[in-house]
DNA sequence: GGAACCCCTGACAACGATGTCAACGACAAT
DNA sequence: ATTGTCGTTGACATCGTTGTCAGGGGTTCC
């Protein structure tokens, strides 16, 4: 037993600093620093003594203090701002980004924006105060121009899933517009002439693009867009389900639904099943999801590749962090895949 | 235009420090510090000048530097170590924890452990080097005793979803053992006598508990446990699906499956549907999931309450951070709900 | 023998902020 | 006029680390 008073265990143990290690090892603090950073020119015997002292005191360098002095100015920390972690698409993107970060030795500050523009600004400000090296962002604010100043100061930024607005930044995303055209054309080929598009909030870049792609396909066949209603502003499965129900009860209900993202598909499919219409009304959804194949009918989807998107975005982010300079911002396009499972191949009723 | 050379935009802008602000405002740095921290005793006119300078230089304090000197020693940063973000249960828990953290003004380092014990140790070490105030942990390593030292130094820790081993810590989780008993009894009441338990790796606390609860129910009715095989070690939907297929092809296949967590349910349901057995074999799954109600048959589950678990865990964590002291660690039990949807109510075949 | 070099080492300043403290001026009370 | 109090302010030390630099000691090469 070392001492009686230590038995009370009331006072908190103080965390060891580099000075404590130096004293215990009988060397200067700079020598401890050298050993901790694997710098050359330390006598093997000295290094051994220092390492023993480190282990004995369980000393670990304070990265905050280290970063304060280090010349490279890097904190080995990145920020990850996602729309919503509970969205399976976003979760997979996050995971891929975090994977890369861990391999590169960076810690990740994650923050959920809940698709709230104010929260984007607030979160970015918080990350800047913590001096992150870079940020992977799913942009939601109407403009990201406010980032220019931070970028001039050395911040690296990559947009994920959506393109930025008001500023040119690297972005990794699916070509939503083309994918939406392909999905819509898929329904048109089956003979559908009244197709509804259920859409997220239109201030989202992805929603805008998918609307454009939808209209591209509709107009290409010279269809009256009045027969092809667009219902925007659907944030979750509930609102989407209600919108689908309203559509089906209207005077001229659509014969096919194109759902603008996973949560919207969830709501629409649920409503169709509740109304017993799942074998009459065609559905194509954006984003693949668990059980899309096990539902009856299986749900035809445009599958994105979230982990590929995440990995490419992270690679790009670290490339910018490690080799800052005047790169030209670039938009990287990740392919999508149309997966036919039944719901998208239902023909319209014969009139 | 300010100058010609600034047009080259080649050099990076230097980030303003408190000294720059002080100089611009014509005051000492301590006065800037006072204004930044809303300390009293600054003349209104001075404060106004300082605030103007801050805005002009877009100065934001460096939280790393601030923390180095601050007496309370808090970094307003917590760590969140989850098994896997792509697991919807874990995603909901994470989201709830992050919500609380943001409201309390703390940033969150998130790290995915992928159920790897080594990664738990490595991630915790990384968080300690960054001097987080507290950690919310889904424990995976065989023992968390190694945390004692950090706790003595003031770290707050709360376990989520699983209890710690080798040390007493706060924990917020479902009572998996009782829930498993309830689920098993549900099947027994329908007359099932050959029930299989599909289980995750048994080094996970939850898996151990669910096994115990399963056996409690089996033994309570005096059943031969040989007829009730336990298949452990199922990490994902694929391995679970294969295990289910093997079981169904065995000499005396079970008439009911109890699936130990969401991913396992996914695999088992998929296999049963592929074999066309979904209306013959009963299934009860642990964890609710999207579309459990829309499958045919609907999947009966033990639903956990992930956001409640996350919220309670975070509340507890911040309570410990804000009022450190010798609290007695406590295990908080969050209720589960058995939701009947059809698959769990299928009776065994008449022999 | 001396210059030149290399290895090893620690004193000290610095990073960007806050804590401590003393000095200053204005004002009230004696 | 003197003293005391209070609001305001900035010089300086400090947090835990790394960058700079100079010095001591040994070896090698003229």
UniProtKB/TrEMBL annotation, chains A, B:
User: Which segments does the entry list as coiled coil?
Assistant: none
The UniProt keyword set, sorted, is: DNA-binding, Transcription, Transcription regulation
Q: Which Gene3D superfamilies match?
A: 3.40.50.2300, lambda repressor-like DNA-binding domains
UniProt-listed SUPFAM superfamilies:
lambda repressor-like DNA-binding domains, Periplasmic binding protein-like I
Q: A Pfam family in this protein? A: Peripla_BP_1
Domain of life of the source: Bacteria
Annotated GO molecular function terms are:
DNA binding
Q: Where is the HTH lacI-type domain?
A: 16-70
Q: What InterPro entries is this protein classified in?
A: HTH_LacI, Lambda_DNA-bd_dom_sf, Peripla_BP/Lac1_sug-bd_dom, Peripla_BP_I
SMART domains named in the record: HTH_LACI (SM00354)
Q: What is this protein called?
A: LacI family DNA-binding transcriptional regulator
